[in-house]
Design brief:
This protein has helices spanning about 1-25, 40-50, 65-70, 75-85, 100-105, 110, 130-135, 145-155, 160-165, 170-175, 180-190, 195, 205-215, 265-270, 375-385, 395-410, 420-435, 445-450, 455-465, 495-515; strands at about 60-65, 90-95, 120-125, 240-245, 255-260, 280-285, 290-295, 300, 315-320, 325, 340, 345, 435-440, 475. By secondary structure, the chain is an alpha/beta fold. The strands form four sheets. Strands 2-1-3-13-14 form a five-stranded parallel sheet, sandwiched between helices. The chain has a four-stranded antiparallel sheet with strand order 4-9-6-7. Strand 6 (about 280-285) and strand 7 (about 290-295) form a beta hairpin. Helix 10 runs antiparallel to helix 11 (about 180-190). The protein is globular, with a radius of gyration of 25 Å.
Length: about 525
């Protein structure tokens, strides 16, 4: 009897601790993970936020992958709908990177309790993961590939970690019969124990919370500091100049702030005629100035003179030199021509770190890169930026695979396999639920679209999408609605491209509410 009581007490303690820390507690902390980072935690955090809030106005739910949150801006869309219809709408996201139709289908039982008045689901070629056929079977085709092989690939942890982190029970219910016992055991453990389910993602947000309060904030994937008028890129790199309002903690004798200096910036000083040191000069409108010398690569602490705080005015910092990532090496190598300065710490210029910005996108310098380009200039940049240098940039491998896949599939017959079948299942579930669904064939970069748009495959693909339309399921085709300058790659919009498309989306969405 004592052994049973002891075992019962241990299990009660284990499950209680697991629930308190991993299933509940981690989502009670502020979320300081920026947009387009910590994807699955951000998704879960947002879902729990929406589920806990009382619905007070018509709710539009943006469903899908990164295509969804690169294409739609909740604030801008609600403003456009208010202007067009005179009504207030709540726009929320149920999206994360890689959320293809199978995974969307597994999430539908989560979605319906949120009581959306409309679900908008933008899709594009990347969502159907048809390129995986050619990666796994270089001589194969989507006409003949075994659907079972695609299912196994899609549920592998390397390709779909969300199946373990987000919906292990749903995955078991849908595909458990085709799993090996060791795979089933992993999913069972993930479903039963929160510490196992979230073991690879739970620590990121607490680490952010700690670093934002006690650390230097110099190791990060996305800048989350004060806006820089001259622009700053996603990783926090400035150009030659950057302006900011100084904070009291930046002055000498206090915290100061941190900047990263690359050896490639220092090398530019040696190239100048005559060779000289690289410097960073600060000035404000009252004539106060300060100059510091940058002599070593790495992160450098900067402390501002007290004179900049009497009176308190914006400061402009200017570098003597700039460097270019396409001439760099190692982790600094990148194929673009933007002039680069120094990297700012993640929370630069903030008194308090930003919270709950998981689906709030801010403009970055790369969003304006193509603004003044002609089509010919953009096309040259497109191939250089996205498809050249695979041997030194393995990260572009999936883009190269997508290019090959689109060109190969143009020669095949359309076959609605796997994710395309799940798109139909999604439409059928919505038809039965009576909740309106708008499936959008989202804009695609005209360059990559041109690789296969005129093929019989693409025409049959459009016909397949159209066949899903009936009753409360609607389909719209926007594939040519955005010029190439609005894309950062084949499918993802720049910030300016997103701004261009949201008024167009709002017209179609508003029309559905007027029916």
């Amino acid at each position: 009897m004592k052994k049973i009581l002891l075992l019962s007490s241990f299990l009660f303690f284990l499950f209680g601790l697991d629930w308190a820390l991993f299933r509940k507690g981690q989502f009670l902390l502020p979320n300081e993970s920026p947009w387009n980072t910590n994807h699955f935690f951000n998704f879960l955090y947002e879902y729990k936020r929406v589920a806990a809030e009382k619905k007070t106005k018509p709710r539009i739910l943006i469903l899908g992958s990164s295509i969804a949150y690169y294409s739609f801006d909740a604030s801008l869309l609600s403003q456009e709908l208010k202007k067009n219809t005179g009504k207030d709408f709540e726009v929320v996201y149920l999206a994360y990177a890689g959320n293809s139709p199978l995974y969307v289908y597994l999430l539908l039982d989560w979605l319906f309790p949120l009581e959306p008045d409309l679900v908008v689901y933008p899709v594009n070629f990347i969502d159907f993961r048809l390129h995986r056929t050619y990666v796994m079977f270089p001589g194969g085709s989507n006409e003949t590939v075994s659907e079972e092989a695609l299912v196994q690939d899609a549920l592998s942890f390397e390709e779909a970690p969300q199946s373990l982190w987000v919906f292990p029970w749903e995955t078991l219910g849908e595909a458990g019969s085709s799993m090996k016992w060791e795979t089933k055991a992993t999913y069972l453990a993930s479903g039963i124990f929160g510490f196992h389910r979230y073991k690879d993602i739970w620590l990121t947000n607490p680490t952010n919370l700690y670093q934002h309060r006690f650390g230097r904030n110099t190791s990060y994937h996305a800048y989350a500091g004060t806006p820089i008028p001259e622009g700053i890129n996603s990783l926090g790199w400035t150009g030659k100049r950057f302006s900011f309002l100084p904070l009291a903690k930046m002055q000498k004798g206090k915290e100061g702030f941190w900047i990263e200096v690359t050896p490639f910036l220092l090398a530019e000083g040696l190239k100048s005629n005559p060779p000289g040191e690289v410097s960073l000069s600060f000035s404000n409108a009252s004539g106060k100035t300060q100059k510091i010398s940058l002599q070593k690569p790495g992160w450098k602490k900067v402390e501002l003179d007290e004179s900049f705080f009497h009176p308190l005015l914006p400061i402009t910092a200017e570098l003597s030199h700039v460097w270019y990532a396409n001439q760099a090496e190692g982790a600094y190598l990148d194929y673009h021509y933007d002039p680069m300065g120094v990297r700012l710490q993640q929370t630069f210029g903030l008194e308090h770190p930003k919270e709950n910005g998981q689906y709030i996108r801010e403009p970055r310098t790369e969003d304006f890169r193509y603004l003044q380009m002609t089509d010919a200039e953009y096309e040259r940049y497109f191939y250089f930026r996205l498809l050249e240098g695979l041997e030194v940039r393995p990260g572009i491998g999936y883009l190269v695979a997508l290019e090959k896949a689109k060109k190969r599939i143009a020669k095949e017959k359309f076959r609605p396999l796997f994710h395309l079948n799940y798109l139909k299942k999604i439409a059928d579930r919505f038809r039965d639920s009576k909740i309106p669904l708008l499936i959008i064939n989202n804009p695609e970069n005209p360059i990559s679209l041109g690789w296969y748009e005129s093929s019989p495959w693409y025409k049959d693909y459009l016909a397949y999408l159209k066949s899903l339309e009936s009753g409360n399921v609607h389909v719209s085709d926007h594939r040519r609605d955005l010029p190439m300058q609005g894309f950062s790659d084949f499918h993802h919009f720049t910030y300016l491209g997103m701004e261009q498309m949201n008024p167009i989306y709002a017209i179609g969405i508003g029309n559905l509410f007027s029916k």
